[in-house]
Specification:
Blueprint: H1 9-23, H2 30-37, H3 41-48, H4 51-75, H5 81-92, H6 98-113, H7 115-135, H8 146-163, H9 169-193
Helix pairs in contact: 1-2, 1-4, 1-6, 2-3, 4-7, 5-9, 6-7, 7-8, 8-9
């Protein structure tokens, strides 16, 4: 008979993700995780197998959290351009300060190296883009790929903020997205009006 788990995998993976995010992906070892969560290294090896499997499971857990956050924000977001800004502002709120954002880029590198994690990123991009498209539905002359365009602008604004993080991140993102929406709706209105 197996003994019941004293900590569910999700709780251990949360500790693993915090360790990875705070100290970089290479800091995630069974020894360090054992100290951080209070389980033995051998217990962690039994649960997760190898360091590579532990890292992948940790990052899949993080993707699950991002999917849940995106779904929750999407459910409460009005399907309007202002709602699209609200949604992306809400998704920006978890990045923290510049140090936290920089550490997150190291974690993103791990996502890009693993085909399974890249597939999760691609699925999230598609789901987020779809919600953003819905926020512009019914506006004449809007590009078909407005969702991906806006998501790309959002990601770019995060990066540009990181080089000069004087303004609070969500305020910077909101300001940038408002300018994007104003430009794209003005262009779409001219396109819909036709040649003069």
């Amino acid at each position: 008979m197996t003994r019941p788990k004293t900590q569910p995998d999700e709780q251990v993976l949360e500790v693993a993700y915090r360790l990875m995010h705070a100290e970089g992906p290479e800091a995630l070892t069974f020894e360090r995780l054992a100290r951080a969560c209070g389980l033995s290294g051998s217990t962690l090896v039994q649960r997760f197998g190898s360091k590579a499997q532990l890292k992948q499971r940790t990052l899949l857990y993080a993707w699950d959290g991002l999917d849940q956050k995106t779904e929750a924000l999407s459910a409460s977001t009005p399907r309007t351009p202002a709602g699209a800004i609200q949604l992306l502002g809400g998704l920006s709120s978890g990045y923290g300060d510049i140090e936290s954002y920089a550490e997150g880029l190291l974690v993103l590198r791990e996502d890009l190296r693993d085909p399974v994690l890249r597939a999760r990123g691609a699925a999230w991009k598609a789901a987020l883009s779809k919600v953003l498209v819905d926020c512009f539905a019914g506006i004449p002359g809007m590009p078909q790929d407005i969702g991906l365009l806006m998501a790309s602008h959002w990601q770019g604004s995060l990066l540009w903020w990181s080089f000069d993080p004087e303004m609070e991140l969500t305020a910077y993102v909101e300001h940038s997205l408002k300018r994007f929406v104003a430009a794209i709706t003005a262009t779409s209105a001219r396109t819909a009006a036709g040649p003069m």
